[in-house]
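Supplementary Methods. Inverse-folding protocol.

Structures were first reduced to a discrete structure-token string of length 457. This string, shown here, constituted the complete conditioning input.
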């Protein structure tokens, strides 16, 4: 099985240690890094100290309110200490037993003492520690994060909002008393990234390995402005009518109908207040996606080679039935491991993920984008935002003539879709058959139907 992973190049393991006061978006950043690296097949996992603390302390109810976090609260200090220790222990176990590559310790670790301790343990285990501090004095941002705590922190699930707000604010004050920020002279021996006001100002120190620099580059591109991403496949193509794959066919008559209807679908999805929002439209370099975008009124249109459909190599232009007859072993091999299977002279899903990486990076930087591309490429983009595992992503059903809207939120991505009422052939191929179409309405175990997995996830 071909395995692509940055870590194989240099055999480095990294422990990312989050640093910063509560309500600075640390958990959010940590989870995004894990999602991004997992998508790139780099084994990574987040160890959230808060989760450990709740497990240890809640039987006694000791974590009832902010006083638990007072440095004077002996019992609180003890529980918090134990929580950090078990998180670190589990993480080290995971590195050793499960060949973890990037572990993230999601804790506040606000003092230099604590950081030295983590540093020592990492060094003993030949793991590179990378400190990632989120420092922020933008009052509005902090206020927003505090407001979100009621919905994002398990500590306040059964408390009312007012209590949650004032208690959480108190908790932050306790941490502030002992907080020591990373400092370019005192901490000059550490590898660290310090993000100031999200990423309006970034300080980097001793970033050494390639893997670390990937993580740095990723977090530097994150922003938190609300935005949406729209995804659509091209309209039905002439090849879809004949069941052929690949090629550079024109849209079918119904495909053109979808293209004409798309501007209306986009306006509907934008909602009445946002009718004038300008989107940027990205297409592939192939005719069918450009034709699909041709009636959209937006000025900014970009075509990317990286968004082109999976290259079917020698099978380009064939139907699945022809492939099954002429290359039976290939046909079976692809069904057995669709993610890894590479067409003769063509590409695999893994290959697409690699070429999509710059697209994902750019998507993180941008605001409202509409992407018109192809089935396999859409599956990979969708898998990144929705954290869909590799075994499942190549089997997701993404129907033609449907506009999908993704709204990235702090801890999840909202999905909604608008179906154009224009019929199209189904181009979904289930495992073990060369027939197209969803035999049981797309409910087969392996297919995650976007039309049914409505709204949130
Ligand atoms: C962070 O943002 C706030 C609000 O925009 C600003 O007042 C503050 O000076 C910024 N801090 C730094 C260090 O740039
Ligand atoms: C940094 O490392 C150097 C060389 O290993 C050492 O001499 C120095 O004491 C260290 N400085 C700090 C602040 O730890
Ligand atoms: C739809 O047709 C295009 C060619 O126009 C082809 O690349 C694509 O693979 C087809 N979709 C499926 C799943 O058959
Ligand atoms: C697509 O349509 C154009 C214009 O009608 C035509 O010239 C071209 O040959 C068509 N391409 C294919 C691959 O059918
Ligand atoms: C969108 O772009 C058009 C043309 O470039 C411009 O006239 C319009 O003001 C823009 N709308 C917004 C909301 O920025
Ligand atoms: C959550 C967490 O890691 N907090 C620790 C940070 O460092 C201080 C000082 O060592 C500890 O007391 C906290 O428990």
């Amino acid at each position: 099985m071909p395995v692509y992973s940055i870590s194989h190049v240099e055999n480095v393991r990294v422990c990312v240690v989050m640093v910063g006061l509560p309500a600075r978006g640390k958990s959010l950043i940590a989870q995004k890094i894990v999602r991004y690296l997992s998508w790139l097949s780099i084994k990574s996992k987040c160890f959230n100290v808060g989760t450990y603390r709740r497990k240890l302390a809640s039987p006694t109810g000791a974590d009832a309110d902010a006083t638990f976090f007072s440095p004077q609260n002996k019992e609180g200090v003890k529980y918090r200490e134990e929580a950090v220790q078990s998180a670190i222990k589990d993480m080290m176990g995971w590195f050793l037993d499960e060949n973890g590559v990037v572990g993230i310790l999601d804790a506040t670790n606000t003092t230099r003492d604590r950081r030295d301790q983590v540093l020592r343990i990492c060094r003993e285990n030949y793991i590179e520690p990378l400190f990632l501090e989120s420092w922020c004095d933008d009052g509005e941002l902090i206020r927003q994060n505090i407001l979100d705590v009621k919905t994002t922190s398990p500590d306040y699930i059964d408390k009312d909002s007012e209590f949650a707000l004032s208690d959480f604010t108190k908790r932050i004050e306790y941490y502030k008393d002992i907080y020591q920020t990373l400092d370019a002279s005192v901490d000059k021996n550490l590898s660290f990234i310090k993000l100031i006001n999200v990423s309006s100002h970034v300080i980097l120190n001793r970033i050494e390995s390639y893997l670390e620099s990937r993580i740095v580059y990723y977090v530097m591109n994150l922003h938190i402005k609300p935005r949406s991403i729209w995804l659509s496949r091209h309209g039905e193509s002439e090849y879809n009518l004949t069941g052929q794959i690949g090629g550079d066919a024109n849209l079918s008559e119904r495909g053109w109908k979808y293209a004409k209807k798309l501007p209306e679908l986009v306006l509907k999805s934008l909602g009445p207040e946002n009718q004038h929002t300008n989107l940027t439209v990205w297409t592939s370099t192939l005719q069918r996606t450009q034709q699909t975008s041709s009636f959209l009124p937006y000025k900014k249109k970009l075509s990317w080679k990286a968004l082109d459909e999976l290259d079917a190599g020698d099978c380009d232009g064939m139907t699945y039935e022809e492939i099954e007859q002429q290359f039976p072993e290939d046909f079976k091999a692809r069904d057995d491991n669709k993610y890894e299977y590479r067409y003769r002279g063509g590409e695999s899903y893994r290959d697409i993920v690699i070429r999509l990486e710059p697209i994902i990076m750019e998507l993180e930087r941008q605001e409202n984008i509409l992407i018109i591309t192809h089935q396999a490429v859409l599956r990979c983009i969708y898998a990144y935002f929705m954290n869909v595992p590799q075994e499942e992503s190549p089997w997701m059903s993404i129907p033609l003539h449907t506009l999908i809207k993704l709204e990235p939120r702090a801890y999840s991505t909202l999905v909604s879709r608008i179906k154009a009422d224009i019929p199209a052939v189904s181009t979904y191929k289930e495992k073990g058959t060369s027939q197209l179409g969803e035999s049981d309405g797309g409910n087969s175990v392996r297919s995650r139907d976007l039309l049914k997995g409505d709204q949130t996830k």
